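Entry 14. Structure prediction run on the chain below.
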Amino acid sequence: MGNSYAGQLKTTRFEEVLHNSIEASLRSNNLVPRPVFSQLYLEAEQQISSLEAGGRGDNEEEEEEEEEEEGSESSSPPTIYQMKPPPEGCCTTDGFCQAGKDLRLVSISNEQIEVPSGFLLVGAKSPNLPDHLLVCAVDKRFLPDDHGRNALLGFSGNCVGCGKKGFCYFTEFSNHINLKLTIQPKKQKHLKYYLIRNAQGILTKGSAICWKGAEFRSCQSSSSTCSNPLFQPPENSGSSVAVTNEPVLAAHPVIQAEMHQMASDHLPSTVCPPVYNGKDSPQQHSVKSNLSSMARPSVLGTLTNSGPPKKRHKGWSPESLSSNEAWNLQPSLQVTNRNKNDGGGGMLCLPHAAMVGPVSSPVMASGEPVSVPDNLLKIYKAKPVIFKGHGNFPYLCGNLNDVIVSPLLYTCYKNAQSLSRAYEQYGASTIQPISEEMQLLLTVYYLVQLASDQVPLIEDLEQIFMRSWRESHLSEIRQYQQAIPQAFPQVSGQITPVTSAQLPWLAGLAASSCNDSVHIIECNYSLAEGLSEMFKMLVEGKLVKTNYVVIICACRNRTIDSCIAVTGKYQARILSESMLSPAEYQKEVNYELVTWKVEALGAFFSTLCPDGDTEALLDKFHQENRAHISSSLSPSVNKSTALDVTGTAVCTSYNFERHQIRPFQLAVAQKLLSHICSIADSSTQNLDLGSFEKVDFLICVPPSEVTYQQTLFHLWHSGVLLELGLEKEHLTKQRVEQYVVKLDAEAQTKFKAFLQNSMQNPHTLFVLIHDHAHWDLVSAVHSLYPQSDPAVGLVDRLLNCREVKEAPNIVTLHVTSFPYALQTQHTRISPYNEIHWPSLYNNGADLYHENKKYYGLSEFIESTLSGHSLPLLRYDSSFEAMVMALGKRFPRLHSAVIRTFVLVQHYSAAMMAVCGLSQMKNYTTVETLEITQNLISSSRQCPSGHGLMVVLRIPCIPLAAVAYERLHHVRERLALEDHFEIILGNPNSGITVGKHFVEQLKIWQKIEDAEWRPQTYLELEGLPCILIFSGMDPQGESLPRSLRYCDLRLINSSCLVRTALEQELGLAAYFVSSEISMEKVVVNDVLESDPEKLSSTDNEDEETVTEGSASEKRSPVKRERSGSHDSAASSVSSKTSSTAFCTETPPLLATRGEVGKSPHQVFSSSTEEGVHNTERQRLKVEKDSKSAAKTAQASITSSSPSPFSSSSASSAPTHSSFVLQASQCSMTKASQQPPIVYLPKLVYDIVTSADSTGLPKSSSLLPYHSVMWASSFRPLMSKMMTCTEQSLYYRQWTVPKPIHMDYNNRNEGRMDTFHPRRLLLSGPPQIGKTGAYLQFLSILSRMLIRLTEVDVYDEAEINTDLKEESEQYYQQPEDAWPDLETLKKMPFDYTIHDPKYEDASLICSRIQNMNSEDRSANRKQEDLYMRRQTTRMRLSKYAAYNTYHHCEQCHQYMGFNPRYQLYESTLHAFAFSYSMLGEEIQLHFIIPKSKEHHFVFSHPGRQLESMRLPLVTDKSQDYIKSPTFTPTTGRHEHGLFNLYHAMDGASHLHILVVKEYEMAIYKKYWPNHIMLVLPSIFNSAGVGAAHFLIKELSYHNLELERNRQEELGIKPQDIWPFIVISDDSCVMWNAVEIDCSGDRKSEYTWAERNISLKQILQHIESTPNVTHYALIGMRKWSSKTKSGEIKEPFSCCHVHDFVMLNVDLTQNVQYNQNRFTCDDVDFNLRAHSAGLLICRFNRFSVMKKQIAVGGQRSFHIKSKVSDNPVSIAPAQYICAPDSKHTFLAAPAQLLLEKYLQYHSHRFFPLSLKNYSHPVLSVDCYLNLGPQIAVSYVSSRPHSLNVSYSGMIFSGLLLYLCDSFVVASFLKKFQFLKGATLYVICQDRNSLRQTVVRLELEDEWQFRLRDEFQTANAKEDKPLFFLTGRHI
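Output returned:
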């Protein structure tokens, strides 16, 4: 029939069962109904047992039926209902019928609907529109009566939208009204409420339709006894506001003001109250185990679902779910989103949602309504807050404005049920979650132990559940056990399960000890009766002492139902106000102010005065004292003050700090820089630092005018803009403003300009600094108010835009003190890119030598601990008590309004009392009086009028304006305008300061600009003022050092979020001068040790809190205090203190006579602190007998009643008078002490209480309003956690809400979500982060410049004075190429001019004119070890680079292109024989695939045959003909092997020559370079071996190429014979351009410029007759080059570092493969002596970079025996043969060369500084040190030698002589008598043979002891040498 439910007219029990059986068979496909009689009798038995147990009478069949009906918990899957497709073209929109007419109640409630007789209007629920009722007209015969009976089987209804009538099947009707069901349509499921018209004629929701199921779901026994309803709902008052606001993720709680539209949807009709016959509502289903069986939602976010869950459980209420929330339940406790300060700290912080609209939780509401009494708020003076617990919650109706319902506790319970799942990732077995009974019992335990002024926190409850669960399953989770806090009730390890029957009794037992603060109500049937009872008790005043009412309904056969009502007025007010978002909070306060609801409060305060009218008293005072007040209050001058030249008193303590960098700021800047470098060094190529030439930046700050100006101020004075070269010297403010942007509506213009600038300047690195980065993290996509406020989501729109993400030259730096919101599971910042402020202290040691100590949150908390001096954090109990009392008196006013009015009244009364109206002293608190007294008197204590700042924090801007007007008015009436200023600090506007005070500031800061006005709070330094600091959040404003009191009593204490709390307390963060003079300490001691004389107004100030200051040394006994740090909590009560305040001490400005004349014109002097100090000092003296003598002495020395009194002369010793004066300046004292902070009691308790780990409780709060906990199952944070560990904790355990800008930053590959160029700098507030990041910009710029600059050697040529200055020039200066014939005529210049050989022996080619004194004067001993001169040069575009350079152009060249993988290179052996070595040489080439075209391979086996060589006749400009060889060692990172830019992209062949053991590392760093690997025997060889092998290989290759190409018809002489041998430090090349005018002898001009190596090589390669030159080189660059040196464009001289070598011509001249040093000089000399041409192009020069690693430095000489790296002096490099000398692990040749360099004078004593008699060196050049000259001679026949006729030598050096050296050759030379001989051979045998063969004994005398060897072991083949003397 399509109907799902049958109604029958007969009512007998038998027929009822029969009816049910028929119905079950009708709608069941797979379930055979049980026989009717067995149902009947089994049910009867069950009914009896249920009656005995007091439980419900649900029978088994009914349960099965319900499960089948509900589709929940069924063993068989529910039948899927296939809905008939709608007719084509019809409307399918939810809420509309198929004809397109609106059926929603909210839309048609005012329309007149025609209802046929016999029909009723009912509300149908659609699963897709849970917040709406659809209006239908249904025949009432098919609807049940009030008892749930007599409904006819079937259906008859009409559509009220289109008017279509006659629907006979509910299936058909449900299709027409677009219910879109997935299960069989049943009328009793969807027809829910009767609809009625109220008094205004508006159609509203009435009572629920009482379908028959209500009977079965109620206790059968109640039918006879409870036939009447439990209560009659009252008449609808019209203001029915749904307060069952149950926020779920992505939904906003329904706020009272916005709920009128919801009233009709959620409330049953109260006009026609239904009779339920004692039965529960049909919607009250059994919850059973569904709480634990529900699928646990993902912690990663919301799975939106447009309909109900696929599998509904019985606790799911179809009318309670919004469209996308059913599965949005987060395991988080803070289920919803909050704005700004909104916390999610617990019950206290019911979070706010992201969307305004009706929402509720999946806690099912039962149909039986509970009436909220009228005038509940008026009677009880508070709105109770009801937290839904387990099971079902009844409907509320009636006066819903006066009650608030929250699902937060339900969510907490639900999450606790899911605890065990969090362990599944660790592999733990499935463990039963904590039971519902135990949860509730633990909740009662928790509430019982709360103090009367405490508010419950969900975090605490979570940890209790966690601990209980862990302890009950300790054995299973032992391996995952962590430290659990001990602060909560102890739960035994073996927990006996608590049954539902025991629960009420156990809960009552637990509550029995709490003096009725927790009241337990036990219900028999439903929570409705308990709630009704509670409301009744509230109205009757029976719950006055009760803060919490726990209502439990526990039946034996079902799960428990529970809820907890917060009835404590204080707690309920806090909890209810915590449900308002900041915007709503401001809106509410504004509403109260605008509608004059506060008038009653104002009137109440105006009567708080002895005369009954405060204003009248003020007016009277104003009239009477107009003449007197100014004179008595004018800032007076102490007699003992410093005077300036004119005699005027001045204060010397004013020091307005400009920008200065502290050591730890520099350390942080360097950490930032190292992170930037690590990004650049990583292989991801995300940042190419080498491609940037300069730094630019933009600083984004919150839209606070003060913060904006403050940042401009710091930027201006830092000098960064000038240093970065962004601006010129004459900086204007308009120019500075270009670099700072305020994130307001106008920010986009500046930001677009920044982006455009970054795109136009790819070689500039742009740093985007997001300061105060936690301020606005609203997602631009999920922005709630995009139209109303364009600034919302601005950070997301700008900083996360695609242009910023993708720009390779933009680095984003987030800077914040509270980084928690940027440390979630979806963060964009890599944990490796976080920079945390370093700890200032480590194990008590000061890591950074600072003259100031930082006071932050931890230091403030530490000051509250016992044993410290006066606490810095305090609360005002008198103020809190008055607020609480007024809260009860004015329950409808927001507590922020009350608190503000109370505090303003206290300040007003305090000002009046200080001005002499002593009768007002009882109308303020001692704390406020102290603040006011010290503020007003502060300027009088300083000769210049410096004073204190008092910050009065009022977050709500309208309230701040009210406070400002009131205080301004009182100040004006008291004539205090010139004594202190009142400033309203509004984030949206600048600072307004009175003209008088502006003039004072200008004088103090020495400002002459007439138009100057203070624009930052820092510029108010020294100004006595009250700063009313407004705005919901501080936005990074810094406060001056004169801040003394930070009054935070008005901060929103209900929003307990870690960020919100810490940023409020961050206002007081402070640097305290740690340098306190000893005299000051002495004076303090004297003044404060006398308890009878403590009448100073600033006594409390003298109690210095600075660590290490007088306060800790003053008394041997530490001060002990109770846990309370209420300022009034002393032995004197608040009132007594106030009385003592004005009576004990005489006023400061007047004698007793003056008091008698004018009692109003004087200040009362001593504050409450003075009295308390007196009391404490008395106690201390009594306790500590050691203090007695000091006290007595102090009494004598300080006899003045008020040592700091302005008018009375101090009787302190005269030598201390100046110290007294300095200490009297309040500003000076303020800078040496952190400010005192007053907090609300609630915040104070949270901040100062710690958990078991020692961490403040505030740290465990939800970190930020737009994030939530990923799971309630999370470990506690630990006090030992570092900042990095805290970050990782939040990254694991928090997820952003949809409103957060990181919400959508999700990816399967987790690493992809991190932005590679985004960094986060976090540090405590006010510690100097701005200075640190400005310093970072500075050093980053310097580093980039440094990266684009290199240190190149800049040394003038040496020995230029030994050149022959010839008048004849062989070439024209402008000649491009040398002339071969001319060059042959030029004499060879033997003298070495390269400055790197400054320490080498001079080569003499003739008798030198220079005497010994000249040479030694030039070369001082210390010069030998001095660092060589370098200069900084900017890299040109033609430079050679090391491995750190990654530009896009040379990626392919470097092998970073994906096509050239590291493995794509091949190893090839290449062998050739060389007779001199007597063996075959085998070399290995590593050839990348991309370079194989340079080589020839054999076809069959791919064997390497040769390296291709071009022809001499080739003229192409596209490539370089000469292969370049670069020998290198130890410089795989720093060697300049990237010649791509130097060659200007031209094709070239470049081969690195490396040692075998370094092959792998060079291959790793240079994957696309060809490597020539030397044989392993050369692993310890020097550069001579590399040069030798390069040359021999090249010649062998030349022969192979000649043979190969000869077959192609090419002549052998046409093959290109040159190679280039280049050092690995050649960085740039230059050319000199000469401009000649006139003849060659005239003056000419020249200029040097950088050119590419390609140009130079192609120029040299195109030299005419180039193959006739053996060696071609160029100058070493020097800035000291003189024009004379380049006048001759070509020279015949030594060439070094970068040479073109003709391997054909030099075939018979070899490099010495044994040499380590000077091998190029040695080769040049032998090449010249062989008659070969050497040409140096003087127009070209090479720059050599200074590289600190590798090269010659890689050779370390150490002992072979011990591993001890002791440096060994060169004198130990040789020893006598067969001695026991320590052998050294170094090549023999190296030892010899080093020894001769430093100690050759031992062997050539006559040669020392004797340059006219050099040492004759045959066939070689060895460096004998700078003080010995040598002459080179070749023994080869036909060699070119200098004529040495007439020259007498002082020594002879024979090094490894070959057969060309014969005795006759040596006899040609003359030697001085006593000249020395030095013969070096490979072994002792060769040594003797050489002596004999050369007949040396004829002219030289030898002794046995003159034989030596290098200090090598025998296996290392030492060299042997013999010395002798000429006869």
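The longest helix spans residues 1583-1606.
Filed with the rest of this week's runs.
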